[in-house]
Amino acid sequence: MFKKTVKILFLIFILSAVSLNVIISAESNLYKGPAPKYVFLFIGDGMALPQVSSAEIYASALKNNKYPETPRYLSFTKFEAQGFTTTHDASSFITDSASAGTAIACGYKTLNGVISMDIGKKIKYKTIAEELKEKGMKVGIVTSVSIDHATPAVFYAKVPSRSMMYEIALQLAESGFDYFGGGSVIDPDGKKSKMDNKPGNVFDYAKSKGYKITKTKEEFMKLKSGSGKVWAVTEMPADAQSMLYEVDRSKDVLSLADFTAKGIELLDNPKGFFMMVEGGKIDWACHANDGLSAIIDVYAFDDAVKIAVEFAQKHPKETLIIVTGDHECGGMTVGFAGTKYDTAFQKLQKQKISYVKFEEKINELKKEKPDLKLDEIKDIITEYFGLTFKGDKSDMDLTEYEIKLLQDAFDETIKDKKERSKSSESYIAYGEYDPLTVTITHVLNRKAGIGWTTYSHTGTPVPTYAKGVGAGVFDGYYDNTDIYKKIVLILKIKKSY
Ligand SMILES: [Zn+2]
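Above: inputs. Below: predicted complex with zinc ion.
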């Protein structure tokens, strides 16, 4: 009798689990709940699982735990909904940020380099940001790279080529969106543009379209709800008009989180808002194979996500937060031939500056002394990367093989750029980066157990995380164009999908 009861109870349990599962998967295909009032879309450029995991492993390694553990250090890896997203574009398994961004912002596959237009470069797609603006929501676009860069551009511009930076910036001014924040622009006066009848400087043009522009921290701090349409530019434009790498930023310089918090302050209104925030320099650090700079920029990105999470705690029934990457970059991985089954991420903490800042220092030294020798810069390599030349086989000491790699790279670095080797071997060794700097980060990263395969993007899927109203729709395995379609579904935008 007892056995029979247990059997029946077990059967009931199985059946209810199966039916619950059916309900959950049905719900994830068709969301019928209320539309969220506040929508955050965070895009970690070049951020796939290796970048996310490395950031968590590094945090764990710094705790010097005896055994490995990967607690959820990042806010978004704790989100209730998680999925995987395929990233191929219309012509390649390896997408760039323009075609990946177009897929996310418009729901269509296009070609590398194309901003929110079709593969024939004729049709201009309506973006999710434009759809939501039409719905009455306010719209904000924030990025740590230049605001005319591919990922932010796909939300407000439509051009056949991402390199049309001037045209993109003009379309920013014409978008009518409520807030732009972060990096500056590459071609403010249209010097590289082939456009006829240029309307002049893009900042002046934006002013004529009603934008208030801030370029200092002081002006930025004065912005408040009711300031009208705002275009806020970092007070310290760095490489390619981007914000500083987080590893190089002093605390008093505005962060990605500051631009996100200001966005909330400016956009909050009874009809709600949509804000896209891009962590763009995760990608740039991965292109350069600089693991520490990438990891620290993942933390800066997460700090921005945390601002949205705090906001969601105040508006739990009205907020949706989506965090995704547009593609992987660098072929980054946890593990290297030289370190076999071990990692030593704590070694990365010896790196004090980004590859960009180090290259600047080398260039200054080269200018001062054209016949510079590797011997003369060993001290600064030790100072900024912790790598030593003692020959004592200690933890951070360079092996003979590693010193040879540095010497070969230095011999290229010291040459004029035009005289450097153009061989494919040289490209595999250094990409288009400063040979010495990229070799230093390679050596340090390998000692830590991080491997790199390329200076470009790769074709692996990326993780997507979601929290809040409608988040369950983001569970599962789907394509990057589905991110657009899922937002359309949750926001109840009428579309023929
Ligand atoms: Zn990239």
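Residues 9-28 have pLDDT under 50 and may be disordered.
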